């Protein structure tokens, strides 16, 4: 036997594939192609099939498949709804319309007209950012293009620098995903850029103004910045201030199709889906929009989304909704799924 994995790792692999419904002959073939003899492969798979642990886990897996089937029903029904295949734009939704038709129903929407009073829409450019708080030290992510798991490994990519230097880099960069100021850099940057919040009027129709600080986030990056497919643990507003962003979204009920292996992250590259490697993505409904300055995108909790900057962009995001949004308090699946 030439396999280099410890035998217990292969046994976990065998059990996982059996529980995923892969046929025993395919699992045996996978073992033999990795150094097991045919006799060893047959013995290991037969032992797993007879194991009371695997048999017990199979009952749990069947229950999970029933839940996944239930979610597929929701998905089919959602596709039947008028406008179910697009992210609609609505002008200045009333509070009741927003919460009843979108927030409570877990549906995305682009709201227009709500940011017209924001001074940020006319004041924020590179010169203003440098003049206002250019000397303050900010935290930014760097080295993202050398790490395919840059979002998962975000803490390893943090760097401190004067905000002025970072703005200079964004202005001169061209298209790149190598550096980005995101919500993951929020705690330090909210203090460093505090004065900018004076240019952002409260969206009191939907948000709790008393909780704005600490639950609002500043994003700044060059063209080409990417946020890979993931879902959030809260409902979110994405308010576009400068530049455009392309957003692709997959409903929460299609989670079974997006190859979620760790916490809230997907293995799928949202910029160019490899359907040979990830065939189940063909069953996912993907909704796409381009968010322009002055527009407000509602991203419902659990919806998978991929975001790409088409220009140099500034975005504000908010989680301080008037209604309950503390869904993370009972979330426990941070480990590999």
TrEMBL record:
Domain of life: Bacteria
Residue ranges of domain JmjC in the record: 174-337
InterPro entries: Cupin_8 (IPR041667), JmjC_dom (IPR003347)
Signal peptide residue numbers: none
Protein name in UniProt: JmjC domain-containing protein
């Amino acid at each position: 036997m030439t396999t280099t994995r410890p035998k217990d790792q292969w046994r976990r692999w065998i059990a996982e594939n059996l529980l995923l419904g892969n046929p025993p002959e395919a699992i045996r073939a996978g073992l033999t192609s990795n150094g097991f003899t045919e006799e060893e492969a047959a013995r290991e798979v037969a032992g797993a099939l007879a194991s009371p642990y695997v048999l017990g886990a199979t009952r749990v897996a069947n229950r999970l498949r029933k839940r996944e089937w239930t979610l597929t029903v929701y998905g089919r029904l959602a596709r039947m709804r008028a406008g179910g295949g697009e992210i609609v734009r609505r002008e200045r939704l009333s509070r009741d319309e927003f919460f009843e038709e979108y927030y409570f129903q877990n549906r995305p929407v682009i709201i227009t007209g709500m940011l017209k009073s924001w001074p940020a829409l006319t004041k924020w450019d590179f010169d203003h950012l440098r003049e206002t708080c250019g000397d303050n030290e900010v935290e930014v992510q760097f080295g993202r293009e050398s790490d395919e798991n840059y979002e998962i490994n975000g803490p390893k990519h943090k760097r401190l620098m004067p905000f002025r230097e970072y703005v200079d880099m964004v202005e001169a960069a061209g298209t790149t995903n190598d550096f980005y100021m995101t919500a993951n850099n929020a705690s330090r940057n909210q203090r460093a850029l505090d004065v900018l919040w004076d240019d952002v009027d409260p969206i009191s129709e939907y948000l709790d103004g008393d909780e704005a600080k600490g639950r609002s986030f500043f994003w700044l990056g060059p063209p080409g910045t990417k946020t890979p497919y993931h879902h959030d643990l809260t409902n979110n507003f994405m308010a576009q201030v400068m530049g455009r962003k392309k957003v692709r979204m997959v409903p929460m009920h299609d989670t079974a199709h997006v190859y979620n292996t760790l916490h809230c992250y997907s293995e799928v590259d949202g910029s160019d889906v490899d359907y040979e490697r990830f065939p189940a993505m063909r069953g996912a409904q993907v909704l796409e929009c381009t968010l322009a300055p002055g527009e407000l995108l509602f991203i419902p909790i659990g919806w998978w989304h991929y975001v790409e900057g088409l220009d140099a962009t500034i975005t504000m995001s908010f989680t301080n909704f008037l209604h309950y949004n503390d869904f993370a308090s009972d979330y426990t699946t941070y480990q590999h799924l």
